[in-house]
Write a structure and sequence with these properties.
This protein is α+β, with helices and mostly antiparallel strands. It folds into 2 domains: 69 residues; 171 residues, Sandwich (Immunoglobulin-like), CATH 2.60.40. Helices cover 40% and strands 20% of the residues. It is built from 7 helices and 11 strands. It has a 6-stranded mixed beta sheet with strand order 8-5-1-2-3-11. The protein is elongated. The N and C termini lie far apart (78 Å). The relative contact order is 0.13.
Length: 302
């Protein structure tokens, strides 16, 4: 059945309104657009700039497509100029080749500068001493070790606000991806490799962390709690873990590494050099962001 003009216009208008309402309702759930740290803020700016530059081509093309379809539609009394022998326009060629080339060049410059500025293993400038947290991806859980504090946790990570965090990331399981969306982009966790990722939270709060790479049956349960606190609260939490939590033994780690989902756990101690042994037992020589001296130190600790 062919609709008249009024119902067709109403249907198009209704679809447009529905689309706007749907995308607006989802905006609050896009946590990557609500950054809480310097890295995530720069990444958000990069996404917005790339979107704007891309839209400067896409939006005019869509508008022109609609205008051309409307203007040159088949109808009685059509006044559009008929030029069957037209084949070239220098002005149009310059427009539809020059503008995309300029945009691609701009994106290239922005990408190169951002790639260097956002290199994940590049330390963050700060007057505060950085905190090292060693991250091990297991089936299907995350183990966090605090080498300076001597404690460990499962699926729960805490750190002070405004302090640069050096995450050293590996896996004792299939490859996964470590991700705290509001603090920065993801970093792969791979067996036999030690990856380095610097992040920082600029304010106190609770954030969401997750594995971003499919690893099997309980992949959906592989998320962890992230909390940025004051320095005083962080030290109280460390002391509480030391006083109330059991120790993680080597045998306990072997059981923890077995494929199974897990809740939040904490340990007052862990085997010395556990992270280093996890990395080096797979005999890989590739380490992103870790110097040869770091790896030699790992070997000496065994």
């Amino acid at each position: 059945m062919k609709l008249s003009k009024a119902p067709r216009w109403f249907a198009c208008f209704y679809m447009l309104v529905l689309l706007l309402l749907t995308t607006t309702g989802c905006a609050d759930n896009i946590i990557v657009l609500d950054p809480k740290g310097p890295i995530a803020e720069q990444q958000k700016d990069l996404m917005l700039i790339s979107t704007i530059l891309g839209s400067s081509v896409i939006v005019p093309v869509l508008i022109l497509t609609a205008i051309i379809v409307w203007r040159y539609r088949d109808r009685k009394g059509r006044k559009a100029k008929y030029t069957p022998n037209w084949e070239h326009s220098t002005k149009l060629e310059v427009i539809w080749w020059g503008i995309p080339i300029a945009i691609i060049a701009a994106l290239a410059v922005i990408t190169v500068r951002s790639t260097y500025a956002l290199e994940p293993s590049k330390p963050l400038a700060s007057e505060k001493k950085q905190l090292t947290i060693q991250v091990t991806s297991l089936d299907w859980k995350w183990l966090f070790q605090y080498p300076e504090q001597g404690i460990a946790t499962v699926n729960d990570v805490k750190f002070p606000e405004g302090v640069p965090i050096r995450f050293e990331i590996t896996a004792d399981s299939p490859m996964n991806s470590f991700w705290i969306p509001q603090l920065g982009g993801q970093m792969y966790a791979m067996s036999g490799m030690a990856m380095t990722l610097y992040l920082q939270a600029n304010q106190q709060g609770e954030y969401w962390g997750s594995g971003a790479n499919f690893t099997g049956k309980d992949f959906a349960k592989m998320y962890f709690n992230v909390e940025s606190t004051t320095q005083e609260d962080f030290e109280k939490w460390v002391n509480k873990v030391k006083a109330e939590s059991p120790k993680l033994t080597l045998e306990g780690y072997k059981q923890l590494a077995q494929p199974a989902a897990s809740g939040v756990k904490s340990f007052s101690a862990f085997p010395e050099g556990l992270f280093e042994k996890t990395v080096t037992k797979y005999a890989s020589s590739h380490h992103h962001g870790m110097s040869s001296k770091d790896m030699q130190d790992m070997q000496m600790k065994e």
